[in-house]
């Protein structure tokens, strides 16, 4: 099997037996992308959070969580390629894997980064044509939506990802970019990444919309009252976290979801 060289989104190069026949994915959205590419036989390991597709979640070997790998299970799978992500995986564990296996890392903060990841993952796995078709489709859908909503006033919003402590998505995150595309102005644009906040601060910022994400913390309808008390005038919504934060083939569903939010909010 020939060896090929690939550069990941962190600028690191890995040598891969091409095309790789034994792949482990350390990131849920990228696992779903590999399924979209038709790599049923090639993907041998996933994480316990890789819930899509359901048949893979039931049948594939789970090598732990995105931040807590079972290195013995990984070794037993004898991977020819491991695919991870800078934000979702722990640096120390990634460094250990890097010393033993071909490792390719994504680094995604914008939709442009996501499109690039899709294309590069296609090249990496021998699915270039499928990946380019998907990337082109997504770029067209996102461009059409942005043109359609151009000039429309943005709603000031806060996006919560965690409870106890309360945490929000701020600038320099993929969620922040998706909020902007969906038509929201992030009231925490002055903060970095995922800050812990107090509800008193939320009250002062007075958002028009509060988005409670379905993941990683599973916000439910029962949590809405707390935010309503802090911001009585705000529209509090349980948001589909996958459609705001997954950056693989699930992006195919994001624009339709954003259109539905527009009908609900604007």
DSSP helix count?
A: 11
The CATH C-level class name of the largest domain: Alpha Beta
Instruction: Please summarize the sheet with the most strands.
Output: 5 strands, parallel
| Helix-strand topology string | EEEHEHEHEHEHHEEHEHEHEHH
Number of strands: 12
The gross shape turns out to be globular
What is the end-to-end distance?
55 Å
| Number of domain units | 2
Give a verbal description of the structure:
The protein is an alpha/beta fold and 266 residues long. It has two domains: 3-141, Nitrogenase molybdenum iron protein domain (Rossmann fold, 3-Layer(aba) Sandwich); 153-265, Nitrogenase molybdenum iron protein domain (Rossmann fold, 3-Layer(aba) Sandwich), CATH 3.40.50. Helices cover 40% and strands 19% of the residues. The mean pLDDT is 96.
Note the topology.
Blueprint: E1 3-7, E2 13-17, E3 23-25, H1 28-36, E4 43-46, H2 54-59, E5 61-62, H3 71-77, E6 81-85, H4 91-98, E7 103-106, H5 111-125, H6 128-148, E8 155-162, E9 167-168, H7 174-182, E10 184-186, H8 199-205, E11 209-213, H9 224-230, E12 235-239, H10 241-245, H11 254-265
Parallel strand pairs: 3-4, 3-6, 4-5, 6-7, 8-10, 8-11, 11-12
Antiparallel strand pairs: 1-2, 8-9
Helix pairs in contact: 5-6
């Amino acid at each position: 099997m020939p060896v090929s060289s690939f550069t990941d989104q962190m600028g690191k190069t890995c040598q891969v037996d091409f095309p790789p026949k034994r792949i482990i994915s350390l990131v849920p959205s990228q696992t779903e992308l590999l399924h979209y590419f038709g790599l049923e036989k090639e993907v041998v390991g996933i994480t316990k959070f890789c819930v899509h597709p359901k048949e893979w979640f039931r049948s594939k070997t789970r090598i732990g969580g995105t931040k807590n790998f079972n290195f013995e299970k990984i070794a037993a799978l004898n991977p020819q390629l491991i695919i991870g992500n800078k934000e979702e995986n722990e640096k120390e564990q990634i460094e250990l894997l890097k010393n033993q296996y071909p490792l390719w890392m994504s680094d995604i903060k914008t939709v442009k980064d996501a499109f690039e990841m899709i294309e590069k993952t296609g090249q990496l796995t021998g699915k270039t044509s499928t990946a380019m078709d998907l990337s082109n489709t997504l770029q067209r859908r996102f461009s059409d939506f942005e043109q359609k909503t151009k000039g429309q006033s943005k709603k000031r919003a806060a996006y919560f990802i965690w409870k106890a402590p309360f945490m929000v998505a701020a600038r320099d995150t993929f969620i922040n970019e998706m909020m902007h595309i969906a038509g929201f102005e992030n009231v925490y644009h002055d903060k970095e990444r995922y800050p812990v906040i107090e509800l008193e601060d939320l009250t002062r910022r007075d958002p028009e919309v509060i988005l409670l994400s379905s993941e990683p913390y599973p916000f439910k309808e029962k949590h809405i009252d707390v935010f309503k008390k802090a911001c009585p005038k705000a529209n509090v919504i349980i948001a589909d976290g996958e459609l705001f934060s997954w950056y693989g083939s699930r992006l195919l569903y994001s624009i339709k979801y954003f259109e539905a939010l527009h009908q609900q909010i604007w």
